[in-house]
Amino acid sequence: MVLELYLDLLSQPCRAIYIFAKKNGIPFQLRTVELLKGQHLSDAFAQVNPLKKVPAMKDGDFTLTESVAILLYLTHKCKVPDFWYPQDLQARACVDEYLAWQHTTLRRSCLRALWHKVSLEGWEGHSPSSVWHSPCNGWVLTRTDAVWVFSSWPVPQYRCTT
């Protein structure tokens, strides 16, 4: 049975799953759920995910939601290269730590800036650049660079590179 991925590629978490599956040659059937058309709110989609959110995945009778959970499931099921999700317990814990951090800190902060840029640009007195360069975003981006991108902490061989 083919893996089914319920995604809207406008969604960053959905794109992460889509790109990961494509990059690793994981066979799947794309089931597009268009958020802007409200397809995620339908009774039919509620049968897949009662929370009516994307992404969602079906693997036979097994259903899973939430992007990080789906990505981790795919790393285990599909035996992807070790650099995606290392076998070493401490290196894997560092990946888990980053996944938790980025999802609750980095994504939220950048999403706020994107929302202001897309939805409010051109309104009188609104400056999208002031949102992007707000103290909160500055703190997040500084920590991202200092800790996750350019640092050798905690596991140098698994750090991000630009």
Automatic annotation (TrEMBL):
One of its GO terms (molecular function) is glutathione transferase activity. It catalyses: RX + glutathione = an S-substituted glutathione + a halide anion + H(+). Residues 1-82 form the GST N-terminal domain. GO terms for biological process: glutathione metabolic process. It comes from the Eukaryota. It is found in: Cytoplasm. PROSITE patterns: GST_NTER. One of its GO terms (cellular component) is cytoplasm. Belongs to the GST superfamily. Theta family. Homodimer. This is glutathione transferase. The gene is LOC109678318.
